[in-house]
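Translate structure to sequence.
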């Protein structure tokens, strides 16, 4: 048992130790304050007070910040990259299959799902987030409608795009969809993530897309994003069987086109060296039914490029066209059909047909955006804003080439005449529909001679070949058809 005198002695020694330690610390602090600069003391304090393993989270929105019309390339790359990182431990997955498509079932990361990944010594965690909000915005719609009527809002202005007029309903409700990815990791690896890991994600995503490329066709529609009307490309898979093998055009024309496409794909550095935008433009001209659309799909299937079908219908002003074009993806084909029906001269409003109540209305009208045009599109693709147009192919079609402005014709890199069916195209079509054995039919040579003396499109001939194949009739039916067609031509 400890005696009272021993306890008092121990307490005295303890207090004496604390007093000595306190005096020593005060002496050290006074010495440091005297001889160590304030800046160095602050820096040491900051290091000692910072946690050893801080976490940093990067957010990748679906759309580029401050540019609502532009898709975020990192978001799209992460979407593809993470689909390949799904593991048996994943608990939330999104499963789907486009209606009427022959593709496989798609599996992607579900809302709130976390996907771990490792890049060298870096461990990261991806998380997919999705949110839908409802908004009411009638006043803004009225402002947008007023802006739309006068065509205001030039390129670069912070104005919304009006897709269509809304009903005068105070309870009009809009759904605003937001999607983003979150990437969390140790803050010590920030530079490595930004300079090495994210480029790795984008490069891997591109490889995956190239290997599993399923061509899509896009058409412009509109939706509300963050309370604003914006045009957006909606897509479906291009389930079209047209290829250069089945295309009914002269073999020499096929070779000319495929050689030019191959040359274009290999010339990225050349275009950069000579200071040109890496794109290519084609004009397909010929009467309806000569295979212009089939050639477009054959090019898309050959290159594995997506198709963006652009129409001027509903695109009232040049600024809207530009914003829509900037959202097209790279490695794509932008198609404009029947451009002979677009009369640039008639696209401008006639000032004298517009009633003005005051000078302010006239001033707003005079400052309106110009109407969209083919020349405007080509200027946008090759001018100051041309960075969006790299690795893209522009294809224009017309049924009446003579209606186009001669100055416009000089702007196309290649003009391709889609002619009536000739002997070479006839042989391809007949083989496609009736099989190779039909070439040995005694009437084949007669049909071959007839095809050179008639003006018939591949589409018209294909319609007759389908009837023969369905009915099982012999080759004489086709010969009789060509004789009748020759009589019509006369």
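Result:
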């Amino acid at each position: 048992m400890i005696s009272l005198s021993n306890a008092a002695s121990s307490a005295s020694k303890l207090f004496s130790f604390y007093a000595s330690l306190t005096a020593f610390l005060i002496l050290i602090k006074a010495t440091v304050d005297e001889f160590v600069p304030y800046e160095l003391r602050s820096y040491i304090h900051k290091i000692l007070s910072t946690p050893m393993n801080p976490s940093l989270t990067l957010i990748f929105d679906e759309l580029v910040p401050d540019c609502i019309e532009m898709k975020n390339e990192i978001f799209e790359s992460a979407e593809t990259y993470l689909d390949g990182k799904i593991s048996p431990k994943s608990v939330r997955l999104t499963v789907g299959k486009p209606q009427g498509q022959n593709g496989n079932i798609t599996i992607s990361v579900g809302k709130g799902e976390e996907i771990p990944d490792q890049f060298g010594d870096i461990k990261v965690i991806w998380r997919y987030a999705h949110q839908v909000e409802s908004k009411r915005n009638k006043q803004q719609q009225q402002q947008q409608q007023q802006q739309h009527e006068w065509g205001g809002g030039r390129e670069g202005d912070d104005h919304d795009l009006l897709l269509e007029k809304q009903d005068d309903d105070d309870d009009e409700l809009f759904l605003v969809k937001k999607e983003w990815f979150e990437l969390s990791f140790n803050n010590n690896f920030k530079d490595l993530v930004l300079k090495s890991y994210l480029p790795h994600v984008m490069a891997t995503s591109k490889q995956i897309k190239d290997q599993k490329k399923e061509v899509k066709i896009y058409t412009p529609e509109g939706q509300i994003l963050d309370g604003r009307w914006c045009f957006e490309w909606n897509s479906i898979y291009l389930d079209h069987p047209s290829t250069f093998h089945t295309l009914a055009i002269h073999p020499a024309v096929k070779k000319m086109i495929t050689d030019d496409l191959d040359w274009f794909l290999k010339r990225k550095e050349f275009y950069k060296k000579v200071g040109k935008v890496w794109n290519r433009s084609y004009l397909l001209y010929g009467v309806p039914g000569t295979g212009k659309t089939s050639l477009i799909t054959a090019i898309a299937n050959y290159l594995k490029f997506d198709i963006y079908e652009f129409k001027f219908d509903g695109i009232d002003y040049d600024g809207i066209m530009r914003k829509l074009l900037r959202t097209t993806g790279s490695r794509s084909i932008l198609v404009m059909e029947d451009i002979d029906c677009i009369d640039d001269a008639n696209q401008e409003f006639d000032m004298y047909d517009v009633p003005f109540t005051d000078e302010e209305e006239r001033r707003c009208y005079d400052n309106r955006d110009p109407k969209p045009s083919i020349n405007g599109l080509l200027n946008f693709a090759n001018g100051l804003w041309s960075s969006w147009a790299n690795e893209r192919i522009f294809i224009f079609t017309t049924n009446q080439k003579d209606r186009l402005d001669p100055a416009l014709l000089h702007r196309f890199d290649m003009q391709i005449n889609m002619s009536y069916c000739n002997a070479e195209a006839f042989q391809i079509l007949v083989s496609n529909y009736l099989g190779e054995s039909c070439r040995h039919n005694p009437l084949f040579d007669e049909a071959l001679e007839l095809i050179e003396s008639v003006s018939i499109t591949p589409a018209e001939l294909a319609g007759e070949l389908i009837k023969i194949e369905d009915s099982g009739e012999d080759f004489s039916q086709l010969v009789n058809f060509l004789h009748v067609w020759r009589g019509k031509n006369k």
